[in-house]
Amino acid sequence: MSQRSLVLLKPDAVRRGLVGEIIGRIERKAGWQLVALELRSLDRGLLEQHYGEHIGKPFYEPLVEFMSSGPVVVLVVEGERVIEGLRTLAGPTDPIAAAPGSIRGDFGTIVRENLIHASDSEESAARELKLFFPSLV
Known about the structure:
The chain is an alpha+beta fold. 39% of the residues lie in helices and 20% in strands. It has one domain (2-136): Alpha-Beta Plaits, CATH 3.30.70.141.
């Protein structure tokens, strides 16, 4: 069953010149394809909607500040089991716990600046895709 997932290549990925490497890893996964791709700056309003479930948590304000600190690459990726696959490809949030071969395992430096976001469920993907690419829903 084909799925769609939102992927954000965060400001640290853009700043460090890792966009091509990360997109290349996604593109090389057999059966997955890029449906949409944009370079954007994210404003607080959009970030509040995207990270709404984290409002009030200690990491919320630093996260919003980081995500608005520079441009991000916003992608829609489609394919068989793409949600689960992208989460595995990204690796755990903590780069020390992330396996070599995963994006965070190979390139991550600190937990807060962790290079990539990928939808964690079909429900999250549907909500996130509406926020970032309403014309595709």
